[in-house]
Amino acid sequence: MAARTLTINGTLISARSNETVLEAAREAGISIPTLCHLDGLSEVGACRLCLVEIAGSAKLQPACHTTVTEGMEVQTDTPRLKAHRRAIVELLFAERNHICAVCVASGHCELQQLAVEVGMSHVRYEYLSPDCSVDISHARFGIDHNRCVLCTRCVRACDEVEGVHTWDIAGRGTNARVITDLNVPWGEATSCTSCGKCLLACPTGAIFSRGSTVAELERDASRIATIVAARNERW
Amino acid sequence: MEFQDLQIMAEQERSRRKAIRIHCCTSSGCQASGALELFHQLQAAVEAAGQNERVDIVGVGCMGFCGQGPMVSVEADGVLFEHVRPEQAPEIIASLDGGPCNVKQGDHAHPFFSRQLHIVRRNGGVIDPERIEEYIAVGGYQALYHVLHEMSPAEVIDAITRSGLRGRGGAGYPTGLKWATVAKSPGERKFVICNGDEGDPGAFMDRSILESDPHLILEGMSIAAYAVGADQGYLYVRGEYPLAIARLQKAIAQARKHDLLGSQIFDTSFNFRVDIRVGAGAFVCGEETALIASIEGRRGQPRPRPPYPAEHGLWGYPTLINNVETFGNIAPIITNGADWYAGIGTERSKGTKVFALTGKVRNTGLIEVPMGMTIREIVEELGGGTPDGTPVKGVQTGGPSGGCIPEALFDTPVDYESLAEVGSIMGSGGMVVMDATTNMVEIARFYMEFCMDESCGKCIPCRTGTVQMYRLLSKISAGQATAADLATLEQLCHLLRETSLCGLGQSAPNPVQSTLRYFREEYERLLRKRVRINLTSR
């Protein structure tokens, strides 16, 4: 595998030729905010938080979906990108009912951390306050659509790692919802193996284990990558 | 089938024609105003008058002047009847022998007809789209024969490149370059897809082409498949076009029967199969990567590009995706030569463009005009201005991805670059005319509502940004917004343009930005004024 040399924020770094800008940056200790990305899962480039500027390209490119090239000049932290990231996080907070004070994931929530990271002090947009349901028909887990950010990490973890595809998306636009099987209550979704990988993958408190109380839900999303790596290396 | 067989079929078809051919439009537009009943009444009238030996009633595709439908034309003497009611059928038949006729007659010399140049729509209103023999009688499938027997794939691509043809789906990507990329991309197999998921409000060009001349599209796709090395094609048509789908199915069956689709076409080693895939009502499926996902049986959502479908398309294979109208230009280019095509239009936009002229305009319908014609010529000469003579305020081109062009800029020629310069796009060809009574804030709100409803929900800026923009526009429209709201709206325009995943989100701000650019005072007039309290005067 050939190596490539590129510049990120003015610093020369090296990367493997098949790596994405995101992987190369993280390896070099440069942080780029992400939400829909999760190590071990395929990339969808949907959250647009990891957009970076690449010299010679007028369009912003998602770092998670862009392969490094020789001599590439990447900027990850310009005022323009920072403004966009903050706006995107604000839009997410305005979209559903994210109330940290009563959330099982508060303190361990990626969305909460993102808000701090991008410097969100308030939300400029009108709160949409949609009427969302909570499904606790499953014996061990629950899904609270109020907290879902539609990152589809649960969908991909279930499909790609567990190989089941219990989760998917129904509806479109802001009315899209993650669903189990053909939009039946989770407890009635016969394909679900109750493996809990969706719980590991969920960045917010949307998917929770029914045992945890407020601000108690700690998860290790990196276990998904560990499982995938273990399989690939025929552990 | 051999070339001679084509000629024999054409000859047989011509010789079985009766002395008088009466064309009755049976496309969706005219059907909606009763054309099918009229068609049957015309047949009955011929029967009743004992004219069966002399007169043939032919159901044809779109004649273009949809606002005047149902339309009937008599081929020999070129008489054109408009707004024909079924009970007027006997009158029309009687008029063939000089009988009195009070049916409203159209005028071929009218600028609506005389200023047009038909390339893609040349068979519209002339042939019966449900009979392959009629297409062959006007020279159909000869271009395909010529290509398969006398041209190498590289020569075909070269001809398309030299013609200067650009994608008619809206973005105007050079067609020859796209073909060359697919041809050069390595892959065990390749696919050709025709994008017939026309969804812009007010646009019906592709529907009309598919309904009026389905074999033209099949021939174009076959030539493309030969050029890029594909053996399977898909026609993706939106489910809202049942007549187009039915006629395409019929056309595919006929072409297969005559070995013009299938294996060893024209006794060469070229094989090509075409199947129809029907869209289920998602506007975003017109975006090429979402369309591919839909054909694959997955949820119709776009994915980031690159890789482009030309390299990594349907099931991962190199895939050529072109719009209906683009494929419609292929056979004429092969028949008449690349230089002929390159001689039409402007420096960088060649050929013609079909527009659906609608809105506050006297002559509603489909027009095909050479690139470079000005918007003023289209709206005022072909369109005849507004129905009540009030001044035109602007036109909207390119649907929810396009923009509004004010009357002051009507001397802009219609070509890809000029339209982009004034903040709109060529788009697929919708052209909605607006008069002085049109509220531009409402127009922007309408298109934003469309984008909001049609957002797939995959990327955050488009999914939630369109909702916020729609709410802000509603607030402005209701007179409850402040200058700060307008500033937020403009920031969101910028955000969606720069960060959305696909073209739908990236271009969703266009109607807002273009109306803000040219009609900003309409927005500002609606803003809530800040109340100033003068404390010092007490």
TrEMBL record, chain A:
Domain 4Fe-4S His(Cys)3-ligated-type: 80-119
4Fe-4S ferredoxin-type domain residues: 139-169, 183-212
Highest taxon of source: Bacteria
Keywords of the record: 4Fe-4S, Iron, Iron-sulfur, Metal-binding
Xref: SMART domains: NADH-G_4Fe-4S_3
Domain 2Fe-2S ferredoxin-type: 2-80
InterPro entries named among the record's database cross-references: 2Fe-2S_ferredoxin-like_sf, 2Fe-2S_ferredoxin-type, 4Fe4S_Fe-S-bd, 4Fe4S_Fe_S_CS, NAD-red_Hydgase_HoxS_gsu, NADH_UbQ_OxRdtase_ferredoxin, NADH_UbQ_OxRdtase_Gsu_4Fe4S-bd, PSI_iron-sulfur_center
Entries under Pfam families matching the protein: Fer2_4, Fer4_Nqo3, NADH-G_4Fe-4S_3
Gene3D superfamilies: 3.10.20.740, 3.30.70.20
Keyword Flavoprotein carried by entry: no
PANTHER family membership: HYDROGENASE SUBUNIT, PHOTOSYSTEM I IRON-SULFUR CENTER-RELATED
Protein's UniProt name: Bidirectional hydrogenase complex protein HoxU
Phylogenetic lineage: Bacteria, Bacillati, Chloroflexota, Chloroflexia, Chloroflexales
Encoding gene per record: hoxU
Automatic annotation (TrEMBL), chain B:
Keyword list, A-Z: 4Fe-4S, Iron, Iron-sulfur, Metal-binding
Tagged with keyword Iron: yes
Protein name: SLBB domain-containing protein
Cross-referenced PANTHER family: NADH-QUINONE OXIDOREDUCTASE SUBUNIT F (PTHR43578:SF3)
Keyword Transport among record annotations: no
Family note: Belongs to the complex I 51 kDa subunit family.
InterPro entries per UniProt: NADH-UbQ_OxRdtase_51kDa_CS, Nuo51_FMN-bd, Nuo51_FMN-bd_sf, Nuop51_4Fe4S-bd, Nuop51_4Fe4S-bd_sf, Soluble_ligand-bd, Thioredoxin-like_sf
SUPFAM superfamilies in UniProt: Nqo1 FMN-binding domain-like, Nqo1 middle domain-like, Nqo1C-terminal domain-like, Thioredoxin-like
